[in-house]
Fold each of these.
Amino acid sequence: MSKYSAFSLARHALDPDLPWPRAWRSPEPKASYDVVIVGGGGHGLATAHYLAKNHGITNVAILERSYIGSGNVGRNTTIIRSNYQMGANTGFFEHSLKLWEGLSHDLNFNCMVSQRGQVVVAVSPVQMDVFARRGNIMRLNGIDAELLDRGEVMKLLPYLDYSKDARWPVCGAIHQPRAGTARHDAVAWGYARSADMAGVDIIENCEVTGFAIENGKVTGVETSRGRINAGKVAIAVAGHTSHVAKMAGLRLPVESHILQAFVTEPLKPIVHHVVSWGAELFYLSQSDKGGLVFGGHIDGFNTYTQRGQFAKIRDVAECAVSLMPFTSRVRLLRHWGGIQDMTPDGSPFICKTPVKNLYLNGGWCYQGFKATPASGWTYAHTIANDEPHALNRDFSLDRFEKGNELDEFGIGNWTYKQ
Amino acid sequence: MTFRRLPSGGRIDRNRPVGFTLDGKRYRGFAGDTLASALLANDVTLVGRSFKYHRPRGIMSAGVEEPNALFTLHDGARTEANMPGTIVDLIDGLTARTQNAWPSVELDVMGINQLAAPLFQSGFYYKTFMGPTKGAWMFYEPFIRRAAGLGAATEAADPDRYETRFDFCDVLVIGSGAAGLAAALSAAGGGGRVLLVEQDSALGGGLLSEPEQDGWLQARLGEIRNASNIQALTHTTAIGLYDDNMVVLVERHDHRQPDPAKGQARQVLTMLQAKAIVFATGAIERPLVFANNDRPGVMLASAVRTYLNRFGVAPTGRAVIATNNDTAYAAAFDLAAQGVEVIVADSRTEIPADLQRRNSIEILAGTSVVDVKGKNTLHAVLDGAEQRTITCDVVGMSGGWSPVVHLTSHGGIKPVYNAAIAGFVPGGFAKTHSGAGAVMGTFGLNAAIREGAAAGGGSIAIAAAGGEDRPYAIVPTWMPPRRKGKAFVDFQNDVTAKDIKNAHQEGYHSVEHLKRYTTLGMGTDQGKTSNIIALAEMAELRGLPIEQAGTTTFRPPYTGVSLGAIAGRTIGGHFRPTRRSPLHDWHAANGGVFIEAGLWQRAWYYRWAGDTPESAYVKEMGLVRRGVGISDVSTLGKIDVQGPDAAEFLNRVYVNGFAKLPVGKARYGVMLNDDGIVLDDGTTTRISETQFYMTTTTAQAGEVMSWLEFLLQTQWTDLKVQVASLTDEWAGMAISGPKARAALELAFPGVDVSDAKLPYMGCLDFSFDGVPIRLLRLSFSGELAYEVHLSADYAISLWEHFLKTGASLGLKPYGLEALASLRIEKGHVAGLELDHRNTLDDLGLGKMAGKEKDYVGKALRQRPMYQAPERWSLVGLELLEPEKRLRGGAILFAKDDKIEGHGRGYITSVTWSVELGKTIALALYNGGLKHVGEEIVCAFPLKNELTRAKIVSPHFIDPEGKRLHA
Amino acid sequence: MRLACPHCGPRDYSEFRYGGDASKQRPPHGTTGHGTGDLQTWHDFVFLFDNPKGPHLEYWQHVLGCRRWFTLTRNTATNEVGEPK
Ligand SMILES: Cc1cc2nc3c(=O)[nH]c(=O)nc-3n(C[C@H](O)[C@H](O)[C@H](O)COP(=O)(O)OP(=O)(O)OC[C@H]3O[C@@H](n4cnc5c(N)ncnc54)[C@H](O)[C@@H]3O)c2cc1C
Ligand SMILES: [Zn+2]
C-alpha cells in the first residue's frame, strides 16, 4: 500500500526501477460475500467505497463483466453540477457536488475535479425566466447560482455567435461557478483503488448471468465465473439495468438508449467553462489535455449497439458551429456512444426492489456521472440499512404509481424524448 | 542529417515552383509537394516539439499517420492548428507555423521538461496536485492546461463555406492502391455506378512511390478515366462506416483555394449509401521501439522511400535502415540506386536469400538499432550480431505493417490478429462488404490486384503487374532493447515503453485501461502508428499471446474532420428552419418588431405604440381593452378533422365532451397525455356533422398532429376519421376589443355579425369578395373578440382591409407581448403554465373533465399525488409593494415561512395590468385558490429581492364573462 | 440506419419520428368510463418496458414524408431493421 504524493513521485523518479504497487488487486472470487455489487462502473465502485468507509462493510465483491470503467463512467462528457430544481434532485445533486469537492483527498487519487463553472446560455426572455426559477431554487437551497445578462456572457464567452446571423440571440445565461468537470476514468480508478485497499474484491471479466432467489429473497448470483453467494445483491449496471433486472423477474420503467459523445484535437486553452445552450441540448467543455469534449441529445430510439447515427452527429456539429463559430475549423478526432438507461421522467432509481435483499441503482439518463459520489453514498446507506436515506427516498420504483415524477426539464413522460 | 532535392525524378511538377513560409521564413517547393516534402527538400528537419517533454521532433511519415510534424496553417480567422504537414498540399503563399514551442522549435524553453521527465511517468497527474488543500487542483490546473493542448485555435468565426450532400452508388471502393484500382475497374465491368475514393492528392496509393510499376499504374488510371461509370475522387476520405452501409466521405478543396464569396465550398461531406463496399485501405508502417527513436531524422522506412521516389527528396550521404521484415529493403535498394550509402540492420538472423543477392547495400543480420544519438548528425547505435555506431543522415525504420482496419471495425466487426504478418486484419465482413490488398494482410502486388479484381465482382480481367510477388516475412519485435533513453511508442503523446511497463505494474492491463492511463493513441494521429505496438507490448508483459490480449477499438472518424464539414450549411441563421407567418412581410414593413418564439418569428410589438417592448405593450393592451386591435395568430396549429366518427374521436382526445357540440359552435378543449399531464389546449369548431376545425397552441402544433395521426392510424383504426394540418395553408387574425363587432361590420358590410347571429363561441363561414372566410367568436384576451381564418394567400389583403375599414375606430395592430399580457389579465393558461408537469386540476380546469365518458389520460390523472390537495395550482397574484417588481421565476413562500428550500410555488408569468393599474402575475401555489386573500412573499434571491404579494383569483378581469358575451 | 416506409420506401432514419414499443397493448377505449379504470393496467402500459436486447417491435412515423405511422421489428443488439407493417 502506498500513498500517492509529490514525495512518492519523487522517490519513483529517482529510482525508476522501483515498481509502483498495483492500483487494485485482481483476486479470484470467494464463494460468498456479505454484499455483491453487480457492475464495476462509477456507481458500483463508489458504492463499495462508501460501504466500507461509512458503514464498515468490507466483505464485498464488485462483479464487472468487462474491465472496470468500460461502461458509461468512461464514456461520458464529464460534466458535474448541481443546478436542479425539482424536489429530491436539488439536495441529492448538491450533496454529490460537495462530495466531488473533497473527492481527490478522500480517495488519495487526483480526479481532477475542475470547478470552472457552467454557463447555460438563454436564447429568449421567456427562457431567462425559466432559468431564473432554477437559479432561485438553487440559491434558496444554499447552492451557488448567478444570472448573467448578455453583456456579462460576452465577457465570459467572447467566442459565441453574437452576430445578427445567429439563429437565436444570446439573451443571457445562468451560471453555476462551482460546477465543472472531473476526469472520468480517474473517478473509476480512484474509487476502485480505495475500495480495494479497504478489502473489497474487484472482479473483472465476470458477468452476472442470473440471480439465486429463494422465497422472494436473493441469496446469490450466477456468473460467468461460477456461483457466488451473497447476503445482499446490489445492481448498478447503467445501460443494462433492464437486462439484469429481468433475470430477477423485474420489469422496469427503463429503456436503453444511445448517447453519443465527441472530442476534438487538442488546442491551447480557449473555452474556460462548461458551456451549455438553451436552444437545443448541447454542452461543451475543454479537457485539460486541450480537446473540446461535447455532446447533445440521445439518438432517440432504444438500442444496445454503441454505434450512433450520423444524423445525430450532424445535429450536434450544427449546434457546436452555430453557438461557437470558431469550432468550424476545429477537427473532430473521435466520437463514440454509451448506452444509457432512460426513465420516463428522466430521474433515477436508488431503492429497494420487490425481491428482498436485492437493491437497484439505475435510470441515470444523462446525469449519472455527476451523481456518482452521492449515488454511491446513498446506495451504500440503502444497502446497509435496508432503507433509503432521506436524500434518495424519492428515487423509488413506485413513484410513477404514486404520481411523484421528477421531470426536471418538463419534457413529459417519454423515455426517448427526455 | 541532411536532405536535398534530386535534380530529377519524382511526381512533382518542376515547372511550377511554389513559394511558402514557415515561421515567417520563405521557402520554395514545387506543385505536387506536400508541406512536409517541401520542408525536407529545403533540409528543414526540426519541425516541432513533443506534447509533454518538448523533445525536438522531425517528420516521421509521409501520410495521415504523422504524429510529429504538426503545423498551424494560415492566419486570422482561417487559422488551422495541428495540421500534419504530410497531408498538406503545397499551395502558393501557404503560411505555416511550428507549434508547442517558445520562442522557437530550436530554442524551446519548455525543453526543460525533459529534465523533469522522470517525474512525468504515466499516471503522474493522478498521483499528485492534490494538496495542500481540498481544491488544490484549481490552483495547478491552469498551468497544466496552458502546457497541454497542441496548436492554438482562433476565436474568430470561420469565413469558409462547407456543403453536405447525399449520394448513392452500387460499389464504393475505398483506397486507390493497386487493389482498389483493380476493384474499381472490375466493379465497373459489372455495369453499376462505381465510386472510388482516395484521401491522397493522387490516385495510386503505394504505387506512387514505386517508379518501376508506373506503367501498370498509368494504364489503369487511363482505363479509370475512360470508364464512364467510375467516379474517382482524390482528397476524399471515408471517415466512417455507419449503420446500413452509410459511408461518410469528406472531400477537401483547400488546394483549389475555394472562395466562399463565389459559393465555393472548402469541404464537401457526402453521406453515401453504397450497395456494396470494397475496403482497399492498405496498411500503415509501424516504427521500431528503441532508445531515442524520436530524433529528427529517424523516419519510417516507407516514408524515406516515398520522399525519394514520389517527391525526389533524398538524404545526402548515408542511411541506416532498421527493420524486422522484408519491406524496408525496397527503400534500401532505391536509396542505393540514388547513390546513398545504405546499411541495413535487420534484427532477424535469417534473411531471405533474394534480398541478400543484391550487393548495393550492406546487410547486418541479427543486428538492431538500439539507440540514436546526436543532434544535427545522427549516430545510430547498432547492437546484436554486429556492434557499431554509424553516423548517418537518416534512419529508416520498419517494425512491420498494420492493416487499416479502422473502417471495417466501425461496423462492429472486431479485427483479428494474423501472426504471419504480425498485424490485425478484418475479422470478417458484412454481407455486402469485402476487402482487398494490404488491409487483408496481402502484401504481394499481383496477389492484391487479383484480390481487388475478385472483390470488385470479377466481371473483367485486370492485367497483372510486371515482376513476380515475393513472399513477405517478418519476425516481430515489440519491446525495445534494454538501454537507457526514452523509447517511444506513441510519439505525439510521449508515451514510452517504460510507461507501458508502469501501467502494467499498476494493473492497468486491459487495452482500454492502458490507453486511458497513458493517453496512448489519444493524439491527432489517433494512434495509427502506436496502438498495435502498445497492445503487443502489454501482451508480452502479461505473458499472453497477442490474440488473447484483446483488440483495440477504432472509433470514427478515420482521420480528423472539421466540424464545419459535418455541419455544412445548417449553421448560423440556417441552423434551424425559420418559420414566418403569411403576414410577416406586412409586419416587417409596418413597424413590427420581431421576437424568436421557438422556430417562429412573431411580431412582438409595433412601433406605433412605442420604441421598447416595455412601453409598447402597455399601449397595445390599452387599445384592446378600450377600443379594438388586430393581432396575427397564424402560428396557431390548425387541423382539419373529418369523417363520420370525427365527433367520437374528439370526444376521446379531449377531456371535455365534443360528441354533442352543435354545428356552427366552437368549444375550448384540453387534451392530456396518457399519463394525465396536460398536453395542449385550444378551440375546436364543428363545421358540419362530420367536419371539425381544431386549433392548437403554437408550440404543440406538431406534437398534437402526430399524436392524432398515431391514435387514428395505429390504435383506433376502426374510427373513420382523417386529419390534415392547415397550419401553413391558413392564416389567422384576432380582432379584439369592445369595438371588435363594429370593426367587423365595417370590414364585412352585408354580413350579419350580430350577437344573435354570431354569439360567443359561434362560427360563421362565408365568402367575402370570393374568398372563403371562417369567422369565429373566440376570445383569448377576455374582450369581445373574433378570430378570422382564411387561406394564407389572402392574409395580407384582408389584414390591410381591416386596417383601412377600421381606421375610423382606431384599429391598430398589437403584438405577442400584449397578447400574452392580455391573457394573463384574463387568467388564461399558456406555454409557461402548460409545461408538461401540470395536471388539469393544477391549472384549475378539473371541472371540465367528463365524469361519465372515457378520454385519454383519464385513468392516470387520478394517481394519488396528482390528486393531492397540496399540489401547486393556478392562482393570481397582485403586487403589494408598487415600488418593487414581480418577476417570472420568483419562488413563493407563505408570510411566516423561512425563506429557504423549494417554497410553495413559483411565478409563471407577470404583466402590468392596464385595467387594474398594477403589476399582476400568474403563479402555481401549494393548495391554490384555498389561499385567496393571503399575503405571501415572492423571493428572487438571484437579485436579492423579497417582494410581498397577495393571492387572488387568476381571473383578474371580468370574471363573469360579460364582455365575452357582449 | 435506413427504415422502409410502407408508402415511400427506404429512407434515412432522420426522416422519421420514433414512437416506442409497439408490442404493448393499449387498454381499450371506454374502460375508464366511470371511476378511475384500472390504474395498474395503465401504469404498466405507460411506464413499464420490456426493453429487450434483440428483436423489438416498434412504432415509427414517416413524419418528414407521407406521415404514415407503421410498425417494424428492429434488433436492438444490431440495429438490423425488418420489414414495415
Ligand atoms: C456519452 C455520454 C455522456 C454523458 N455525459 C455525462 C455528463 O457529462 N455528466 C453526467 O453527470 N453524466 C453523463 N453521462 C451519464 C453517466 O455517464 C452515466 O449515467 C453513469 O456513468 C452511469 O453509472 P455507472 O458509472 O455506474 O455506469 P457504467 O460505467 O456504465 O457501469 C455499469 C457497469 O455494469 C457492467 N455490467 C453490465 N451488465 C453486467 C453484468 N451482467 N454483470 C456484470 N457487470 C455488468 C458494465 O460493463 C459497466 O461497466 C453520460 C453518458 C454518456 C453515455
Ligand atoms: Zn412515407
Amino acid sequence: MKNIFIIIAFLVSFLEASQIEWHKSYEDVIKTSTEDQKMIMLFITGEDCKFCAKLKDETFKDPDIIKEITNKYHCVEVTKDEDTYPKKFTAKGVPTIYFLTPKQEVIDYTLGYYDAEEFGYILSAAQRRYKKIKDTK
Amino acid sequence: MKPILAITILISSLSTLYAYHPEGMKVYKKECMICHGSPFRMAESRKQYDWEQMMFQSSRPILDLHKNEKEAIERLGSNWTDKKQENLFKFLIGNAKDSGAVPGCDGNYCGP
C-alpha cells in the first residue's frame, strides 16, 4: 500500500513542473519555440541585480506562476550587455522581461520586481494581448 | 501622535525620493494591474503631453476612458479619489514614452 503512494507521488511530481526550465541561450530558445510555437519569455538580468534575484527566488518559485509560465513559454535568461540576444530588446533597467511570439515579436514587456499575484496579472494581460495579435492577423 | 500616523508620514516622505512615483505605482497595482498588467508598458504607451492632455480633459478622465467597460466602472467608480488620480498621473507622466526617466537603483529595479 505504501508503495502505491510513493509511486503516485512520484508521478504527480512529473505532472507538476516544480521549477522553471531555462534554456541555455537565446538561439536555443528560438529554435525550440519555432518547433512547437510556444511563446518566449526573455528575462534580462544584470550583475549584482538584487531584484532579479528576488524575482527568481520568490516569484518564480510560486507554483501557480511556474505552471502558467511552463505551460505557455520557453524561457531564457540573459545578462544585459553581455550575452548574445537581439539589441532591439533594450532594458532601461533590470530585471526586464519581454514576452515574445515564436517569431520574436513583442507581445508585452515589464520592468522591475513583482510578487506572485502581480506577476500573475502581468502574465494574463500578456496572454490577452497575444490573443489580440493573433486575432487581428 | 499615534504611531501609525507617524509611520505613514515617515513612509510617504521617504518614498518621494524614488523617481518612479511609488504612490502612483501603488495605485496602478491596486486599481489597474488586474486588467492591464505591466505598469511601465502602460506608462510608455503615451507621451507626457498625451497623459497631461488626458489628465486635464475632465475631472474623472480614467472613468471617462472606461465608460463602455462596465466591469472597470464597477471596480473603479466607487472608490476613485482625487488623490489616487493625482498620484497615478504622476507615475504615468513620469514614466511616459518620452520622459527619459533613467533611474538609478529604484524601488523595485535598477537602472543602467
Amino acid sequence: MGVGEVVAEFGGVYVSSLLSTWLMTIVCFAGGLALGVLVTIMRVSPIKPLRVVGDFYVQVFRNIPTISLLVIFVYALPYLGLLLDYRTCLIVCIILVVASFASENFMSGINAIGVGQIEAARSVGLSFSQIVRLIVIPQALRTTVLPMTNLLIATLLTTAIGSQVPLTPPELTGMVNYVNARSVAGISAFVVSAICYAGTALLLGFLGNKLDKKVRIVR
Amino acid sequence: MAAKSTAIIQMHHVDKHYGELHVLQDINLDVQKGEVVVLIGPSGSGKSTLCRTINRLETIDSGEILFEGKPLPQEGKELAAYRAEIGMVFQSFNLFAHKTILDNVTLGPREVLGTPKEEAEKEAMDLLARVGVAEQAHKVPAQLSGGQQQRVAIARSLAMHPKAMLFDEPTSALDPEMINEVLEVMVGLAKEGMTMVVVTHEMNFARRVSNRVVFMADGQIMEEGAPDEFFDHPKTERAKDFLDSIRGH
Ligand SMILES: Nc1ncnc2c1ncn2[C@@H]1O[C@H](COP(=O)(O)OP(=O)(O)OP(=O)(O)O)[C@@H](O)[C@H]1O
Ligand SMILES: [Mg+2]
C-alpha cells in the first residue's frame, strides 16, 4: 500500500490524530512551562529548603526517560489507589519532564540577567516578588525563546510515547499501529506520520525564530 | 562640624568579614543632611562594601548603622521601603535591559510608590530632560552610550525622591569624553543640597562639591578631611602614596 492510498483510506483519521498530537503538545508544553516557572521560582527563592526541593525536582525528572515514568504511572499508581485514565497519565508524565527542562532554560535565562540589574531593582525598593514578576520572568522568557522552541519540538516528539497506551483517537505514532492493524500499509503508515511530525516541527522552528527576532533583548 | 543629631547616616563600630578577610574594620562615619562625602582609596580597600552596607545590599557582622536616627530594617517590606528612600548609582549603570528608558524611570514610582502612570511619566520626562536624555525616552538601554545610560540611572534614582544617594564609582566604566556629562549632573544635585556618598577618584569633582573626603585602606578609615586639605596635605603615608599613584607620579 503506497502513501497515497494510505492517505486516501485513512486521511480523516490521520487528521484527527494529528489534531490530537497537536492538542497534547500544547497542553503538555503549557503545563510544563507553568510548572517550570514555579520550580524556577523555588530554585531562586531566598528560602533554602525551597531551593533544595526545586533543584531536586529538576535532577529527578530531567534524568528519567519519559517512557519509564509513564510505565510507573500506568502500572504503579493503581497500586497506590490512584487511578488515572491513560491520557491523563501520559499528559502528567510529559508535563513533569518538560517542566524540568523548562526550568533549566529559565535558569540560564536568569543567569544572563546579571546580578547588577537585580541589585538596582532592590535599591529602587522593589520586593522579591515584584523583582521576579517585573524583571526576572519577562527577561528570562524573552531570552529563552530559541531553547524553548527546541523544547516545544521535543515535547511534540515525546507525545509519541502515547503509542504505548491505548488512546482514542490515537496520536500520530499510535496511528501507525492503527493503520497496520486494519490494512497492510507497512512503512507507508510511518511515512505519513513522519511527514506530519516533520512539517509541524519545521513550522514551530520557523515561528520560534520569528518570535525570537521580535522579542530578543539587545544587551 | 554640625551637631551629631543632624547626621542622616550614622555608622558606629561597623565590622564585616568575607570569610577570613576583614573587609570593614571598626568603621565610624557620620554623614550630615545635605553633605557630600567622597570615599577614596586603593582597589580592594572596602569602599564599595562600605557604600553598599548603607542600603543593606551588604549585611554587617557587628556595630550599627542608623538612618535618620533609626537602625536599618533587617529584611522584608520595611527594608524595601527603606531602600526606596536611598538612591543608588552603580559603576555598570544596571538599567533594566528589557524596558525603555522611560519605563526604567517610571517602574519604581509606579510599583513602589503607587504613582499613577500619567503622573509618573510626566515626572520621568522632566527628570530625563534635566539629565539631558529626553530624546532617548523610547529607546532601550543598549541603544544609549555609557554616559547617557548613567544619566538615566541617576534619573531613575531621583524619581523615587530619595533622601540620600549612594554612588559607587559612577564614572569608572565610562570613556573619558563622557565622564564630565555625568559629573555635571552630580554637581547639580550636590548644589541642590542632596545628601551624597560618592566613591570616586575624580579629584576635581571632590574639590568642587564635596564637604569631606574619607580615605580608606585595608578596610579602615585612615584619615578624613576637607577636600583641599586632604589632597594638598595628606596626613598619612598611605594617603600620600595613594595620591601619588593616582596622579601618575
Ligand atoms: N562578595 C564577596 N565575597 C568575598 N570577598 C569579597 C566580596 N566582595 C568584595 N570582596 C573583597 O573585599 C575587599 C573589598 O572589596 P570592595 O569591592 O569593597 O573594594 P573597593 O575598595 O570597592 O575596590 P575597587 O576600587 O576595586 O572597587 C576586596 O578584597 C574584595 O576582593
Ligand atoms: Mg569598588
Amino acid sequence: MTDNGLYGFKAEMRSMQIQSITKRQDKITPKQKSMAEYLEGRENQIVTKGVDSHELVGGKPSVAGSVSQRACVFCGSRVVLYPIADALHLVHGPIGCASYTWDIRGALSSGPELHRSSFSTDLREKNIVFGGQDKLYQALHELIDKHHPKAAFVYSTCIVGVIGDDVQSVCKRVQKEKDIPVIAVMAEGFQGSKKDGYKIACDALFSLVGTDESMEVSPLSINILGDFNLAGELWMLEEYYKKMGIQILAPITGDGRVQKVQNAHRAALNVVQCSGSMIHLAKLMKEKYGIPFIKVSYFGIEDMSDALYEVAKFFKDDSVMDKARELVKDQLTTLIPALEPYKRALQGKKAAIYVGGAFKAISLVKALRLIGMKTVIAGTQTGNTEDYRLLKTICDDGCIMVDDSNPVELSEFVKQTGADLFIGGVKERPIAYKLGIGFCDHNHERKLALAGYDGMLNFAKEVYETVTSPVWQFVNKNKE
Amino acid sequence: MQKAESIKKKVMPSGDAFASSCNACKQCTPLGACIAFKGIEGVLPMLHGSQGCATYIRRYLISHFREPVDIASSNFSEETTIFGGNKNFNTGIDNIIKQYHPRVIAIASTCLSETIGEDVQRLIYEYQETHNWMPDLPVMIFASTPSYQGTHSEGFHEAVFAAVKTLAEAFGPVGDHINLFSNMISPEDIRHLKEIVEDFSIPAMLFPDYSDTLDNTSWDSYRRIPDGGTTVDELKRSAQAYASVELGYILNSGGMNGRIKDNGTKQSAGEYLKNKFDVPLVRTGLPVGILESDKFFNSLSSISGKAIPVKYQRQRGRLVDLYIDGHKYVSDKRAVIYGEEDLVVALAAFAAEIGIKPVLCASGGESGKLAETLRKVLGKNYYEDMVVGQGMSFERMEEVMQELKPDLMIGNSKGYYIARKMDIPIVRTGFPIHDRIGAQHSHMLGYEGTMILFEQIVNTLLEDKQRKSPVGYKYM
Ligand code: SF4
Ligand code: SF4
C-alpha cells in the first residue's frame, strides 16, 4: 500500500462501515438476501427462469439515480445513420455529444469516409442564450461547401430541444439552397432511450427512400437492414449472397451510400437483422412500397444458414436454393472440425450476456451452446416484453434474465452464478475484469467480425482465448 | 519566417470564430468534473441531466482508465425537462443512497439542467433539510458545469474548487500539513507526487487523489465504491494547511471559454483558500522536465524548510545523464504538442529544454492565456516560430500540420489518425488514450517521470527511423 500516515486507518473504517451496511440490508429484505439491493420499481425487470413466475418487463425508462448502461435517443439515431459514409453527420449541440461519438464504432466503408469525422456546431453560452439557428445554418453551408456530401443529417441534441431552435426549417432552407437532402434528426436525448432513437433514424432514412431511380436493379435483389459493417460483416454477407446469385441493392446502413438508400424501394425483399433497430423502416417500406421483409440473424451457424435459406425460399428459385445449400455445406465442412478443439476446452463453462437487444442475446445463447457453454445470465438494455418471452423459451432453467441492468446488479449476478465469461460492451468490460472472469466485446467497438461462418470461428477463438487464459490463476476469486 | 507568420494568422482565431468544429480536441465539462470527483473517498458522482451524457462519459473514462466508473444520472425525461428536475433529483439521491451507500454524492450539472435553470444548490439544501433524520446522510458537493462554458479541463478544476469550497472549514489553528492540488494527471503520477511529499516528510493532502479509485488492483469481490481517495476530513482541514501548492498555470482561470462575458468570479481551489482562509498559495507548473521539476522541488523545499532528499538529487543526476545519451536523436526535431492547456505548457517546456522545437502548441481549451503562459514559462528556450492555437480542433491542427511538416506528435491518442495520415510518429500521453493499454500508468512528472517520457520519445523516434531505414541497423 502507498498510503502514508494521513491515509492510515481508512481501510479499517471502511470495512467496519460495510459490515454495518450489510447488516442493515439484511433486515430490509430478508427474503432475497443476495439480490437485496436491486432498485425499487425494478422487481419485474429481473426474472430467474424456473424460479420466478412473473414476466420480464422491458421498455421501461431507467429510474433516476441508477447507473444505467443505456445510452440516449441521440445515440440510437447516430448509431443507425452514421455508417452512411458519403453523408455529412452534423451534431447540433454542445461539444460533448459529438466528441464522445467520434468514430466510436468501426463502420467500415469501401469508399468515402466522411462519416468518420465528428462534426459539431459546438454551441457556446451565447448560442444558448440567443439561439443556435444561425450557427447551424452557417455550419451547414461551411461544411457542405468543403466536403460535398451527398446528403446531410443534422442531429439535434437535448439542449437544442430546450432552446427552441427550429432545426427543421434551417434544414429545409439549406436543402433548397444546396440541392442535397438535408434531414433533421430530432433526437433529443431526454425523449426516451436508444430505441426511440432507432425509430427516429428509420424515419430519416425513409424520407430518403424512393427519391432516386437511377441504379441498376436485378430481379433477385435484396436490401440488408440492420447490419452496420462494424468489422466487415457486410462484405462477408455480400460474398455469400453473391454466390447465390443475389444482389444486395442497398446495405442499410453498413458501408451505406446515400444513393443506394434512395434506390432501396426497388429491391424485391428487405432482410432485417435482429429486429431491434431497423424493423420500423422495414414496416414503413412494406406499407408504402409493398416490399416484404424477413427477420434474420447472422450470428451462429444455425441462424446464419437460416438467413441464406430464407432468402432463397423467398425467391422460389431452385438454383438459388441449391447454391445456398452448397454454400452452407462448404462452409460447414471446414467450420465444424475447426470449432471442435474450442468446444472441448470450453465444455461446461458458464456465460453471462448483457447486450443491446434481445435478438442478439438469443443468437448468442445458441452460439454459446454450440461451443459447449451454458448461458447463466441473459440481459439486454432495450429488449421489450415480447422479445423477452422468446428469449425465455431458449434459456435454460436457472438463467437470470434482466432488463436495463446496472453494474451493481450485474456484478451481483455474476457472483451468484459463477460465470466464467461476460459478453457485453465496453462499459461491462471492467466489471468482468474486476471480478476476474473473461470478456468478449459483442457491441459496437469490435475489430473482428462475429457474423457468418468465419465470425463463428472468430467468436469461438476469442471466447477460448479469454476464458482459458492463465492470468486468471492470479485472481483471488471469492469462491462461495 | 514568412511562412510561419501566415500560419500564425490563420491559427489565431479561436474555435469560437467558426460555425462548426470537426474532430474536437476537447471533451465536455462534466467529464472533467467526474474525474476530479473520483478523487474523493467514498464518492458516487451524479450528473443532473439526461441519461446519455452520463453513459457517454462513463464509456469514455472506462476506455481510458480501464476501471469501472460508476456515474449515476438523474435521468431527465421530457416531462422533467419541462417541469424541472426536482423529483428526479430526489429519487436519484434516494436510489444512490440505497444502492451505493456513499459517503459523498458529488453532483455536476449538464448543459440541459443548466439551460432549464435548475438550482441544484437549492435542491441539495432541501434534500438535506427533509432528510436530516438519516443517520449517515452523505455529504453533497455540487459543481456547476454547463459544457458550453469551457472544456473538460475547466470542469475538472471547477469540481476541485467546488469540493474545497463546500468542505473547507476554519476550525482550529494552522496545521503542519500542506494542500497539494495536483491537476489532471495520471494515477501513476499522483502516486509519484505522494511519494515525493512523503520523502520530504511533509504531511500533505493531495487532491483529487484518484490514484486508487481509477487504478485499482484486481478484486476478490466487486466494490460498489472502490477504496481510496482524499477523505472528507482532509478536505475539511484544507483551510488549516500552512500552504497550498497548486500545479498548473492556467487551471480554470480562462476568461473566454465561450462565455458571454468574463465575470471574473472563477477561482481555483488554492485561490479560494488563500482569499477566504489566508492559506498561502504557491503556484507552479506541472513538473515535467528538469526546469519545471526544479521549480516544484524547490517550492517544496522552501515551504518545508527541508533539503531536497538525496534520492531526488540522484534522480535528477541520472536524468541529466540520460538527456546526454539521447540528445542527438531529438535535437532540432519539430514537434506538435496538444492537449489540455496546462499539459501543453508543461510538455512544451520539456520539449524546448531537450532541443525539440514545439512548432505547434494546440489546445481545445480557450483560456486566452496559452500564448502568454508559454512565452513566460519557456523563457529563453521559447521557440520564436511557434504557432499557438486555442480552441483548436484536430481538423484545424491537421491543416496547420500539413504546412508545418512536423517530425513528431506528442499528445493524446485522438491525434493518431493524423500521425497515420502524415506518416509521422506519435508519442501518446495525457488524456484520453483509447488505443493502448496502461494509460493509468503513464508517468511523466518529476525527474523520474521525465526519464520515462524522454525514453519514450527517443525510442519512438528511433523506432520510426529504424522502420523507415533500408538497412536493419542493430545499433543506433
Ligand atoms: S449535453 Fe452537455 S454535458 Fe451532456 S454530453 Fe453533451 S456536452 Fe456533455
Ligand atoms: S445531451 Fe442529450 S443528446 Fe447529448 S449525450 Fe446527453 S442525453 Fe444524449
